[in-house]
Amino acid sequence: IKQGMILAAGLGKRMQPITLKTPKALIQIGNKNLIDRAIELLINHGVDEIAINVHYLADQIKDFINKKKYKAKIIIFHEQDKLLDTGGGIFNATKSFQEPFVVINPDTLWSNAYLNELKNLEDLYFQNKKASLLLVNKNLSFDKSFEGDFNLEDGMVSRDNSNKLIFTGLQILDHSVFSLIKNKIFSMNDIWNNLIKNNFLIGIESNQKFYHLNTKEMYDKILSLNITD
């Protein structure tokens, strides 16, 4: 897989006051900020073209990308007028991509420890040609407030009354998943639910400790761990 996308258009309201002046994707943990970690993971996996959607404080993200001079072609999609939500953002930014492509949410603290799992997810996709999610057990989450998003049985993803797995923010998709969508603004949850209904969503479990920045309180707690890599 040579193409990837990073979702960086969120408002980061629950991270205020940090995000009043800094977009969430540029929040720094250790030696790197969140978007830097996501880009490095993709490049180290072999991705050489990356799409990034932006909206809030977009110029800061654009400036950061331009100064870094990454070893990949990076295309910025500025959702200037209105946010397209997760699904709409991915659909809009990946129209020119070949298939399949990797999509990353930078809210997770990515590192090269995930490289092997990304490779395993890629292998899973090519074996089955189905949208593939990297999930993690709630027990491995640093944030214990997560209720869970999915379950996994024999590689098939489901959503039930009680779910023990969290979506890490890493998935492999192709454009067929958007075939029934007619709206410009839509959530990936709509896509996932439709795929699950048709037994077309698969996944693997991550073995990494899961750090996810979604609130100012969680940011403070993760920062106190002095994570450097």
- Which sheet architecture does the biggest sheet show? 7 strands, mixed
Considering DSSP H and I runs of 4 or more, what fraction of the residues is helical? 25-40%
| SSE pattern, N- to C-terminal | EEEHEHEHEHEEEEHEH
- Count of individual beta strands: 11
Unreliable sequence segments: none
Please, what is the average pLDDT?
A: 95
Shape: globular
Distance between the termini: 25 Å
Strand content: 15-25%
Biggest sheet: strands side by side, in what order? 5-4-1-6-10-7-11
Number of helices: 6
Radius of gyration, in Å, reads 17 Å
Quick structural gist:
The chain has 229 residues and is of the alpha/beta class.
Main attributes of the structure:
two-stranded antiparallel ribbon; seven-stranded mixed sheet; 229 residues; 6 helices; alpha/beta; 28% helix
Overall description:
The chain is of the alpha/beta class and 229 residues long. Helices cover 28% and strands 24% of the residues. The protein is built from 6 helices and 11 strands. It has helices spanning 34-45, 58-68, 85-93, 115-128, 188-197, 216-223, and strands spanning 3-8, 28-29, 32-33, 49-54, 73-78, 101-104, 131-137, 151-153, 156-158, 165-173, 201-206. The protein has a 7-stranded mixed β-sheet, with helices on both faces. A two-stranded antiparallel sheet has the order 2-3. Strands 8-9 form a two-stranded antiparallel ribbon. β4, α2 and β5 form a beta-alpha-beta unit. α3 packs across α5 (188-197). The longest helix has 14 residues, at 115-128. The model has no long low-confidence stretch (mean pLDDT 95).
